[in-house]
C-alpha cells in the first residue's frame, strides 16, 4: 500500500527543504500520496472523517514538517487533536493505527550539534519528539523514527552547495521512506 505523507508547512511557497522534499515525492505517485494540510485547510476547519478515511486508505503514515518552537506547526497539532479520536485512534475498540508504520520527516533550523546534550539546546531532537512518539505508541502504531534535515537556517545564506545538498537530502528521504 502507498505511504501517506502529511505535509504541514504554513509557508510552503518560501520553503526550501520541505518544498524540495515534496517535489521528490511527487516523482513517485504510485508510492506516495502527498497531502498538504495548509493547502487542504486554509481556514483551519479540518474534515475529520475525510482525514480518517485518507489515513485508513494508506499503509504507512509520515508527518513532514518544520520544527516550530521544538514542536509541530499549529495546524498539525490541531490535526492530531481532532483526527486521533477515541474509538478510532485509541481506546479498546480503536484499530485504525494498530501496527501502522508511522514516521516523521523534519526540518530543523538548528544544527545537529545544537540538538545535542552539549549543544545550545541541551537536548536531542529525539527528546523534543517524545510527545509525538508517545502519541503513536498510545495508538499502538509502529513508530519508525524520523528523518531530519538539520541547519536549514544556516544553509539559506548564499551557499553554492545548497542544490547538491538538497538533492542528496531528498534522495535520502525517499530511501528512508522506502525502508519503513
TrEMBL record:
InterPro entries: Flavodoxin_fold (IPR003680), Flavoprotein-like_sf (IPR029039), KefG/KefF (IPR046980)
Alphabetic keyword roster: Oxidoreductase
Top-level division of the source organism's lineage: Bacteria
Gene Ontology MF annotations: electron transfer activity; FMN binding; NAD(P)H dehydrogenase (quinone) activity
Signal peptide extent: none
Residues in Flavodoxin-like fold domain copies: 1-157
Identification of the protein by name: Flavodoxin-like fold domain-containing protein
Amino acid at each position: 500500500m502507498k505511504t501517506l505523507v502529511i505535509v504541514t508547512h504554513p509557508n510552503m511557497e518560501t520553503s526550501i527543504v520541505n518544498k524540495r522534499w515534496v517535489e521528490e515525492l511527487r516523482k513517485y505517485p504510485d508510492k506516495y500520496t502527498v497531502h498538504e494540510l495548509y493547502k487542504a485547510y486554509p481556514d483551519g476547519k479540518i474534515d475529520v472523517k475525510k482525514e480518517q478515511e485518507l489515513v485508513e486508505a494508506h499503509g504507512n503514515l509520515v508527518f513532514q514538517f518544520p520544527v516550530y518552537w521544538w514542536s509541530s506547526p499549529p495546524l498539525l497539532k490541531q490535526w492530531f487533536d481532532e483526527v486521533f479520536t477515541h474509538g478510532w485512534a485509541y481506546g479498546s475498540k480503536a484499530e485504525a493505527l494498530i501496527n501502522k508504520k508511522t514516521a516523521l520527516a523534519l526540518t530543523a533550523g538548528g544544527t545537529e550539534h545544537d540538538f545535542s546534550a552539549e549543544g545550545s539546546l541541551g537536548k536531542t531532537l529525539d527528546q523534543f519528539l517524545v510527545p509525538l512518539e508517545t502519541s503513536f505508541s498510545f495508538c499502538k502504531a509502529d513508530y519508525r523514527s524520523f528523518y531530519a534535515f538539520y541547519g536549514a537556517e544556516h544553509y539559506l545564506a548564499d551557499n553554492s552547495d545548497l542544490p547538491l545538498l538538497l538533492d542528496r537530502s531528498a534522495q535520502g528521504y525517499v530511501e528512508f521512506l522506502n525502508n519503513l
